[in-house]
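Q: For a teaching session next week I want to show students how multiple molecules come together into a single three-dimensional assembly. I've collected the sequence lines for a complex. Could you give me the predicted structure tokens for the whole thing so I can convert them for display?
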Amino acid sequence: MKNWPLWEVFIRSKQGLNHIHAGSLHAADAEMAIENARDVYTRRNEGISIWVVESKYVTASNPDDQGAFFDPANSKVYRHPTFYELPIELKHM
Amino acid sequence: MTVMTSQEILVKYLLRLADTTLILGHRLSEWCGHGPVLEQDIAMTNIALDLIGEARNYYQYAAKVENKNNSEDDLAYMRDPMDYYNILLVEQPNGDFAHTIARQYFFDVFHYLLLEELQQSKDKQLSAIAEKSIKEVTYHKKWSGEWILRLGDGTEMSHNKMQEAIIDLWNFTGEMFLMDQVDELLVKEKKGVDVAKLQSSWLSTIKAQITEATLSLPETSWVQKGGKQGIHSEHLGFILTDLQYMQRTYPGQTW
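A: Of course. Below is the structure for the complete assembly, covering every listed component.
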């Protein structure tokens, strides 16, 4: 059990919403990972659907690239759609 | 046997269901903090809580039928071993993980079949409890059944441990299907389950899973019995000592 791989768990809380990363856990295979996720992450009614993926298949951005990757977005205010006049009839934007 | 009123018979029937689920729930809860891995520790405590929740429903109903001013807590915490009517299988020690799995799987398959029938009970309260619990038990059965497969068809060591656990606990399984006067009267009233009729279905399910797990069932048909009549193995006294300590020491104590 010491060499069980790590799995990332994604839970959809209700119909129409995205699966959101909930955490990670150890399991021998995908089936056990789903069941463990059910037991660990949905005990308090958190979900109606579970995805699991072995952590080794997740490619993450390099923390060293943080500046180059994300800082340039800081000063691009024109990328936010805040310059449009919304018609009064639109209530839920 | 002294003559029992139909009310007393129903109470006894309910206490058997309640005690069996409470004691198994308590046994599983002993794994809390000691599970082989965190995820399974949580799985076992979840199942423990399901079982104790089911037990509470039976106790509450038993207290109401009994009508002696007892609460569910009085029934759980204030009765002595000889007044407990759980089957012997569920009071057997956790042992190693394989023993816990064997005990659980034997019971889960039975429990599922029992609730399936109990849903048809003419007693509305009983059928409602069964309907609520069977969803939970469907998962219990899946969980323990998969562990039978994984351990049986795993490494040489896990296979041997699983096989040993099956042999050790086998003699306690027959009691689940024994009928007595209480069962028969409730079956007649269409409130209770004819457990003897569940045995062949139980056996074929168990056999298929055990065989797939490359394990085998013992040949012996000796049945260790008595729990339903209040005659227990040496383990129940120790369980109740733990379980009842707080209420016995500080009667009426609440959170």
